[in-house]
Design a protein that fits this description.
The chain is α+β, with helices and mostly antiparallel strands. It contains 10 helices and 7 strands. Among the domains are: 3-49, no CATH class; 58-118, Nucleic acid-binding proteins (OB fold (Dihydrolipoamide Acetyltransferase, E2P), Beta Barrel), CATH 2.40.50; 201-245. The protein has a 5-stranded mixed barrel with strand order 3-4-5-7-6. A two-stranded antiparallel sheet has the order 1-2. A hairpin with a 4-residue loop joins strand 3 (58-65) and strand 4 (70-75). It starts with a helix and ends with a helix. 26% of the residues are buried.
């Protein structure tokens, strides 16, 4: 499909959704069997809804870093705005040319792009979205947690790494941990090392838990801990050092 075909398709979709919202009607979704088909609803008789999460699978272009977790990718003069996991955001260099694997999140009132270093990370994000109570914001937060910490939390039945995420209470964390155990059992490759050029630092689990319990978000905590010299060994010293920069 050519770029202009995609652009025309998305424009017609946007106009159709805007018309529906104006008339107070519910917009159709993939659950209605609308993917790539004409609607049986008279309001959609002349419109083909052709959005698909895989329609934009990857973008290659010049990266510009905005406030965490946002970046733009300039593709031949067209700038796409994406949200990316913090560890990936941290590895990106301003002005470099990169290829980002993309997931398109489409709902009645939004169309957001999420970018990832590799397809495996995208798959993790998609599977997290399928969990009850997990939306794109929480899924992205979970993707930002170093995988070795996930593995340790699962092995030790430790929910503290999850309760440290803003908006996740103890009951939600306990349910999430059960769901995550099931997911990681099916996909053991998710706990494997990431490619070296994008490999995040190994973080002190206890230091992260202590700092997030004080109200700091994961991206800020991970950024602060990454700046601490490796010579600082004790968790207490790492927390103290991180607090000085937060």
């Amino acid at each position: 499909m050519r770029f202009f075909d995609v652009f025309d398709c998305m424009t017609r979709l946007d106009l159709t959704l805007s018309s529906l919202r104006h008339n107070g009607e519910r917009c159709p979704t993939r659950a209605d069997g609308m993917r790539g088909k004409k609607s049986k609803n008279p309001s959609f008789a002349s419109t083909i809804l052709c959005y698909d999460p895989d329609m934009i699978y990857a973008l290659s272009g010049i990266v510009r870093k905005l406030t965490v977790p946002m970046v733009t990718v300039d593709v031949s003069g067209v700038q796409y705005l994406l949200s990316v996991p913090y560890p990936f955001w941290d590895t990106l260099n301003e002005g470099q040319e990169r290829t980002l694997t993309v997931y398109t999140y489409v709902r009645e009132d939004r169309l957001d792009l999420f970018g990832f270093a590799i397809g495996l990370e995208r798959e993790l994000f998609v599977q997290l979205l399928n969990l009850t109570g997990v939306g794109p914001k929480l899924a992205l937060e979970l993707c930002s947690v170093p995988r070795n910490m996930f593995a340790n939390a699962i092995l030790a039945d430790d929910v503290s790494i999850l309760t440290g995420i803003k908006g996740v209470g103890k009951k939600t964390a306990e349910k999430l941990l059960v769901d995550l155990k099931s997911l990681f059992e099916k996909h053991p490759e998710w706990t494997a090392d990431t490619p070296s050029k994008d490999k995040p630092a190994t973080f002190d689990h206890d230091a992260v838990a202590a700092l997030t319990s004080l109200g700091y978000d994961h991206p800020s905590v991970l950024s602060a801990l990454k700046k601490i010299p490796t010579s600082v060994k004790r968790t207490e010293d790492r927390v103290a050092a991180a607090l000085r920069s937060l």
